[in-house]
Amino acid sequence: MSDGPSVTGGPGVGGSRCAAIELESPTATRRAGLAMGRTLPDRALVLFSGEMGSGKTTLIKAICEGLGIAPETVISPTYTLVNIYPGPPPVYHVDLFRIEKPEAMLELDRDDWINPGGPTLIEWPEAALPLLEGESVLQVRMAHAGNDALRRTLEAEGGAALFAALFQALEREDAAQE
Fold it and tell me: Which residue among 31, 37, 75, 122 is least packed, with the fewest CB closer than 10 Å?
């Protein structure tokens, strides 16, 4: 079995596209994240969900690396809520794990947690969902796969037109691993 992602999926409902990706190792997760980062639209909103330890922050590190940000500077902003990584373009990394109710999000200025000039990557986005109605987002769900502690599955769904290059990059990554 290859060490890279296995991409399946196709056009989804309402102009969206879906992909299910199997990641055999942290190296495969990094390669998928690099591919995603290199093709992420400038003002993309990416929502990451999944249980604790499912690989969300690992994937985000690789996405940021693909965007030209040193991966060692990328850490989960669980206590600060938002980390801003300078780069071309700057990236907002948001972690809403500690936000229990959507009403708490109303106390924040939108520009404090949604990047007006670059990508926004949001872990634990549930509290923000009511405030993102009508936004074009890429939803990424991470999960443990099987009994192997290193294997993960990644499911992505987003607007087919906005994220077309990202889905194509994942397909190319998959083809290169076969």
Answer: 75
The Cα 137–Cα 120 span in angstroms is 10
CA distance 116 to 136: 14
Nearest Cα to 152, choosing from 11, 24, 6?
A: 24
Which runs of consecutive H residues, i.e. helices, occur in 40-153?
56-66, 102-105, 110-113
Q: Pairing state of beta strands 137-144 and 6-8?
A: unpaired
Return per-residue pLDDT of the chain as tens, 178 residues.
Answer: 334 333 344 444 457 888 888 888 899 999 999 999 999 998 899 999 999 989 999 999 999 999 999 999 999 888 889 999 998 889 999 999 988 887 888 888 888 899 998 999 999 999 999 889 888 899 999 999 888 888 899 999 998 788 999 998 888 776 665 5
| Token pair of 154 as six digits | 């990644």
**Token pair 């902003």 in the structure block, residue:** 77
Question: Is 27 part of any domain?
Answer: yes
23 with 29: CB under 8 angstroms?
Answer: yes
Give the amino acid at 149.
Answer: A
Phi and psi angles of residue 170, each rounded to the nearest 5 degrees, phi first: -65, -40
Q: Which residue has the tokens 């980062």?
A: 37
CATH assignment of the domain containing 169: 3.40.50.300
Domain count, the chain: 1
